[in-house]
Amino acid sequence: MTRIVVLGGGTGGTLAANRLRRALPGAEVTVVDLDDVHVYQPGLLFVPFGLARPEEIVRPRHQQLHAGIGYRQSAVDTVDIERDEVHLADGTLLGYDVLVVATGATLLPEETEGLVGPGWMESVSTFYTLDGATALERTLSTFDGGKLVVNVVDMPIKCPVAPLEFCFLADWYFRERGIRDRVELVYATPLDAAFTKPVAAQRLAGLLGEKGVELVTEFNTASVDGSAGRLVGYDAREIGFDLAVVVPLHGGASYIGRSPGLGDELNFVPTDEHTLQSKARPNVFVIGDAANVPASKAGSVTHFEGDVIVENISRHVRGEPLDARFDGHANCFIETGFHKALLIDFNYDTEPLPGHFPTAVGLPLLKESRLNHLGKLMFQWFYWHGLLPGRDLPGIGSAMPRSGKARAGAQR
Ligand SMILES: Cc1cc2nc3c(=O)[nH]c(=O)nc-3n(C[C@H](O)[C@H](O)[C@H](O)COP(=O)(O)OP(=O)(O)OC[C@H]3O[C@@H](n4cnc5c(N)ncnc54)[C@H](O)[C@@H]3O)c2cc1C
Description:
The protein has 7 helices and 24 strands. By secondary structure, the protein is an alpha/beta fold.
């Protein structure tokens, strides 16, 4: 019996385990996670604005796994890739024939000087955790004017469009409350534009301008002073604030750094970008944010990786050559406020382009629409009932569709 151990029971670990259970019914599949709280992370964006309640976006982790899958609740301490063994913090040793690394990206706020100092979770906050998003809801509800700065400390981050969405929703929120003229909104990013890909960056910078959000580029945050209300960049530029909403530095899980040969200097796992096999060992595969592939760290990418990784694990078990077909497909709804959203769809080689998704008669790309907003809202249902159980989106495969795109563009 093939023993498959899946590290992490978030988006990627859950959907991979459920798909593996179906594809390899004879295998023993065990998922390990440090807690039993599965958060629908895209919902964190809505909590600060009172558009979702924390309890609506959380479910027990083990209940998302199909019958017959083992679940161990413990932190991973180390992985010994020489001996094919996982050591858990509770002292258990799990041997494996195939290992799936799905421990995602970890927030490292303590790596930025002063970020978790005075004012943390009050005048300095984040919506990237459930606690932070919940605290921010309280802070925003009593915020009656001043300078609100949304700051990304460094890339890569999960869902690179989420901080932009926060800016757009903040504009909507303060208008609804009738105090928009008393709030100055600033978006400070380490990038040289609003987003990484040129066509989308131009469109998103235009939207920030239309909504009166100041864009500050190439701002690399060195320290945060919550008492004085000031972000300081490595180039000595300063941005004052009354409320800072910060997306902290991200890294891979710390056990990866304690596991010789498994990770890189940021604790992400070097991975073949087309097969999802790790570069460390042929029997180690990686799904989701834990991989160092040049795709967005997004649930959509994790979902599209699902059938490729399961196909390749099955081939590995049968001793067949792997299928190098993952193309980096990413697909993100970008909430823009006032019940509208943009949609972007891209992969390793093709940047987000205008047109329609998935075909010429589908959802509008790079254009605000109510249909896209409904798509974003409906996605939460699909997450729990389709994506995590390991189903495909009807009519949408893992490869990026090209037929509805306005023109072919190529960039890396
Ligand atoms: C605010 C926000 C908004 C987002 N919006 C979107 C969106 O609109 N669209 C989109 O596609 N994506 C979005 N994302 C990104 C998406 O949620 C992630 O990319 C996706 O969840 C990645 O899946 P994963 O399995 O790699 O990681 P995760 O789902 O984060 O799972 C990792 C798991 O590993 C576990 N783990 C970590 N370390 C250990 C350890 N040492 N031992 C045991 N277990 C461990 C964790 O507890 C966790 O359960 C958003 C993310 C955030 C934060």
